[in-house]
TrEMBL record:
Pathway: Cell wall biogenesis; peptidoglycan recycling. InterPro entries: Mpl (IPR005757), Mur-like_cat_sf (IPR036565), Mur_ligase_C (IPR004101), Mur_ligase_C_dom_sf (IPR036615), Mur_ligase_cen (IPR013221), Mur_ligase_N (IPR000713), MurCDEF_pg_biosynth (IPR050061). It is an enzyme of class 6 (ligase). The gene is mpl. It comes from Methylophaga nitratireducenticrescens. Belongs to the MurCDEF family. Mpl subfamily. This is UDP-N-acetylmuramate--L-alanyl-gamma-D-glutamyl-meso-2,6-diaminoheptandioate ligase. Residues 313-435 form the Mur ligase C-terminal domain.
């Protein structure tokens, strides 16, 4: 059976393509934005990716067209599908009907940390010999790919609250029907589709309605936005993490998060790993609690995390040249920016920390986080802001709030030149964007080499 995926290079759709290929489908796809790591994964899997959204990509007609949620009416390929009467389906619905049937789904949701926590959880289960399937919106270092079918009933999925498709405005996670559900946190985001936090809470309430009473809901202790959501109805056993009276406790946490202890009832164990930041400690605790629900001991889970290799684009060290380290971080929200920089600052002490930010998410482009963005960057010694000409708002106010430490550039090459000329041994450059950013990471490393 031949399926064609519109929007195949998105993190979710690219992973879905890998699952379909592994299941034996003939897979092709189209996308307007093709860049690593997803483009590399698809090429390695031998999946044909076509540039743009042309009707001829759908000739001869595939048996099914899977629509990514980036597709909208007016897109040439979408209009062709509708006019020709080709069968089509959303990615989440296709996944539910073809991959998740009769699986024990462990879903990780929340505003932040979904990718990292899902990756930790999948690795813990793998380390425990449980051979899970998984679909994650990033590339876990322990697996080298974002998705796999697995050989057991267990399936780990990053459960995104973004909408499903242009014809299905429910959140993606409504389709997954998890038995184990993690809600990491809950803040306002995705302002392009949600009017306010209450609208997001409604979608999470709908998700909670799908979890069996014999399942498990894992949440941080006493977070108001989550508790308000649960007050609308919860029919599932709950466990709380990281609080004075929580079911799961943390202790002996290093300032930079590189080691900590976990306690649950009579079980206790320690993690010592390469990741940084209190946010990753919390992510780990959620992953350990979820793994415990399917039979993994606390000790075994902590052993697994001692060997966890992180996730691409989550404070990923892309290289070091002349003593200058260049990181790639998938920044999309002020809270995530702040916790990432805080973790690195605690690790590097007084060494210079330079943040290079492209506010690229739809919500950031709309200026929704304009009031909190400057505060999230305070841990950096220097901040370089990239002003995209397509922004509907100016970054001047952010620069003014940050004072002398900040500057604005309108060209990627100007940023590269600035960093190459003024960086010194011991500096840490964190490039923060949820897009390709013009390949800036390698350009910086190349420029440092040639100076």
């Amino acid at each position: 059976m031949h399926i064609h995926i519109l929007g195949i290079c998105g993190t979710f759709m690219g992973g879905l393509a890998l699952l379909a290929r592994e299941r034996g489908f003939n897979v092709s796809g189209s996308d307007a934005n093709v860049y690593p790591p997803m483009s590399d994964q698809l090429a390695d899997a031998g999946i044909d990716v076509m540039q743009g959204y042309l009707p001829e990509h759908l000739q001869p007609s595939p048996d099914m067209v899977i629509m990514g949620n980036a597709m909208s009416r007016g897109n040439a390929a979408v209009e062709y599908v509708l006019n020709q009467g080709l069968p089509y389906i959303s990615g989440p619905q296709w996944l539910a009907e073809n991959i998740l049937v009769n699986r024990w789904v462990l879903a990780v949701s929340g505003t932040h940390g979904k990718t990292t926590t899902s990756s930790m959880l999948a690795w813990i289960l793998e380390y425990a010999g449980m051979r899970p399937g998984f679909l994650i919106g990033g590339v876990p270092g322990n697996f080298g790919q974002s998705a796999a079918i697995g050989n057991t009933p267990f399936f780990v999925i990053e459960a995104d609250e973004y909408d499903t498709a242009f014809f299905d405005k429910r959140s993606k996670f409504i389709h997954y029907h998890p038995r184990t559900l993690v809600i990491n946190n809950l803040e306002f985001d995705h302002a392009d589709i949600f009017a306010d936090l209450a609208a997001i809470q409604t979608q999470f309430h709908h998700l909670i309605r799908t979890v069996p009473s014999e399942g498990l809901l894992i949440t941080p202790y006493a977070v108001p936005a989550i508790e308000q959501t649960l007050e609308r109805g919860c029919w599932t056993h709950r466990q709380s993490i990281d609080g004075e009276r929580a079911d799961w406790q943390l202790a002996e946490i290093a300032e930079d998060g590189h080691c900590f202890s976990v306690k649950h009832k009579q079980q206790a164990a320690k993690v010592s790993w390469s990741l940084l930041g209190r946010h990753n400690v919390n992510n780990a605790l959620a992953a350990i609690a979820a793994a415990h629900h399917v039979g993994v001991t606390v000790e075994h889970a902590c052993e697994a995390l001692n060997q966890f290799k992180g996730v691409k684009r989550r404070l990923e060290l892309r290289g070091e040249c002349r003593g200058v380290k260049v990181y790639d971080d998938f920044a999309h929200h002020p809270t995530a920016i702040a916790t990432t920089l805080q973790g690195l600052r605690a690790n590097i002490g007084q060494q210079r920390l330079i943040a290079v930010l492209e506010p690229r998410s739809n919500t950031m482009k709309m200026g929704v986080h304009a009031q909190t963005l400057a505060e999230s960057l305070q841990q950096a010694d220097n901040v370089i802001l990239f002003q995209d000409p397509q922004f509907s708002w100016s970054l001047d106010a952010i620069k003014q709030q940050l004072g002398h430490k900040a500057e604005i550039h309108h060209q990627v090459d100007d940023i590269v030149l600035q960093l190459a000329q003024h960086s010194e041994a011991g500096d840490h450059i964190v490039v923060m964007s949820n897009g390709g950013f013009g390949g800036i990471h390698q350009k910086i490393l190349d420029a440092l080499t040639n100076v």
